[in-house]
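User: Show me sequence and structure for the first protein, then do the same for the second.

Assistant: Starting with the first protein.
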Amino acid sequence: MLNIKWRLVAIIASIVLLVHFLWLSPYLESQQPSQDGNLLDDTNAPNHENNDNDTGKGAGIIHPPAVTVTVTRETGAAATITEIVKETVYAADVKEPVVERTNAAFVILTRNKELDSLRETLAQLESRFNHRYHYPYVFLNNEPFSDKFKEKIADIVSGECHFGLIPTEHWSYPDYINQTRASEARKDMAERKIIYGGSESYRHMCRYESGFFFRHPLMDKFKWYWRVEPGVKFACDIDYDPFLFMEKNNKKYGFTISIKEYILTIPTLWDTTVDFMKEHKDMIPEKNLMEFVTDDKGGYNRCHFWSNFEIGSLDFLRSEKYLAYFDHLDRAGGFFYERWGDAPVHSLGVAMFLNKNDVHWFEDIGYYHGPLWNCPKGELNKNKKCWCPEEESIEIKNKAWSCTLDFVALSNP
């Protein structure tokens, strides 16, 4: 009798436990760890408007891992304050792009080893701007891109990706360059500790950015380009289309930062440019921007637009006058015998052939390329959700080095 009693108790207890387990199972399942060790409970997860649970598995949504961006800024030559600014950014959910776009692309000269820094940059660019527009990307390299590079980049951007190999003739010595002289020049500049003075690849890069990137077949179908470099940072929302702004306002060239060039890298660039202007007077319009690059006596003031960020017209770079100017410089040999940069070359071309109305300062785009900032000011800084401090903007922090306010002060034609 006793055994029957305890058997009955055991059966009842088993039934109670089974019912309790069935009632709790949905909750327990929701608390199981995911593959990355985090609980699947989304109470504290980022609030994506279209997450996979709402739209069905996949649904074309890209959720790359968070990227933590750290910027270190120093004040003065001997820093007494070092501020660390961090932002965690997520590539936004892929949605249908806005209806109105123009024929444009981002163009990025990069290498396989820059994958990580480039992904950080692209995560910000997508989050701050391109997730709404889905503009395509053109990636260029003098060596083949790896499959890993292509996959990792395609995973993080919303626009179509094009990966191109630079033709050998665009990344080598032309037959009119004395390579022995070029080698001796590199050695001399390295001994004088001139930045990138001893680098051969840097010279090929500057020459390529000055006169060839826009001739790559992958660029043929585009009218506008936005140059991006690995490791740069975008600190503010870009809530409009800069490409369309340029097109609708008849602009040809846009910049964020302008500074004075290091003269030891370009000792004969100005004289070579003056020779070109004397030989091609018919190409130089009466109204131009030469006042931006000259001092009161008509000499070169070294001002240039920092070309690691530029949004511009490919038609301008493909024009007969710009190509003639580049060819003149190329045959002079300064890309190899000195260390001419693409920034002063582009800037002198813009100054000769365009006027102030053709050029735009994107003051409202928060942009960092070490060690310099362009940061929106006042309410603009707040409204665009910027994380850059406006006092760090180069035209405020170092007015003597910056040329931006000089550009602003120029009168329109």
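Switching to the second protein now.
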Amino acid sequence: MFLVTDKASAIALMIVALWCLGSWPAFFNVLERRGRLPQHTYLDYAISLYFSACILALTFGEVGPSSASSPNFIDQLAQDNFPSVVFAMLGGLALCSGNISMQYSLALVGISLTEVVSASIAVVGGTTVNYFLDQGLNKASILFPGVGCFLFAVIIGSFCHASNEADTMAKFAHTTDDEVALSKGLLEGPPEGTRTDWSKRCRGWLRQGKSVLEQWRSRKTDVERDVNGKYAAVFDDKAPELPFMDETSSVAGSAAYLEHLEEVRAIKVRGHSVMLGLGVAFFTGACYALFSPLFNLATNDQFHLLEEGVPNLSVYATFFYFSTAFFLLSMVVQTYLLYHPMMGLPKSSLTAYLKDWKGRHLALLAGFVCAFGNVCQFMGGEAAGYAAASAVQALPLVGTLWGIVLFGEYHRSSRKTYTLLGGMLFMFMAAVVIIIASATERS
């Protein structure tokens, strides 16, 4: 089988895992904001993750000769390693529970805060447990200062989120109904049978970074107001839809955009307590803190539960059992939620899910990216310590980038918010560098 044993390769895998595991939640957020039911998205994601795990096991897990001390994936399926299988499947159940709760936390408090809270709890809890399971393999004098940086980052992140919430409330307080109607009308696109150079103008807006309302104020002649008080531009051909409702322009941070988003998204967040979202994010973090130590126990048998002479499970065999439990729980929970949805979501059915192809490719891609990221994380942990591999839980480094670029989560915020955001990201980067520096090759 393909294995990594040196420190440099392990660190490279951890960096790849960091990017993958920080990126796949963005696919979920895109689909939820486009109105796709989260149950449909998660079913596609779980199926993709499971099949990706099987493909990785049957390819990389079968590379090279098999031996008694290091059997390939197929050979390990017939071995008596039940205790390790149990730990692997418990890890899959923990990750699945965390991912399901993360979907709702993403909608309630956004991708940035969700990943800040959940990743910090996962790193503090998971790193500490893995350090003791690996019997101090990683250097404590380097490892735990890195964990301290994570704690400091989450404190800064909480102040950043509070400041951004205050900025959002200020936007609503100073926006008129006419401005909201205008911005919504332009976000939804112009009607057919009208005339103008809409495509060229949109590209110009994106390059200049100006909002729809700012452009309208400078070119009022391009906009007409009808008797109902709604606004529409004069166009000849149907305009191309802007990606993600024009979230790359500064209108993404406006009150009009937030109003429009609430109307089209699947999970309605208006009226739900922020504390509810934080509670869900904390539960997500607790689940994420458990799955890595359980995977560690499955691959290294620290409790000596296997019979003498039975080799430890390989990363690929462990990930196969891990993903099997993940897949089974996902199917049960998400099928139940189709018919008994939470948070005001509409009811669905298996038939409706099978017919829903809107955005399915993104959900399937999310499953593959997550599976590949997990394998990289576990291979890096097996080679250089699972405590050091916890650095890949610094998801806000990647998640916040996606939140800014795709979703405008901090767009048009105050200088105070940007200062706190910069401080938070700096502390996360410092934490990743320090924790990875504690990596030590496993003998």
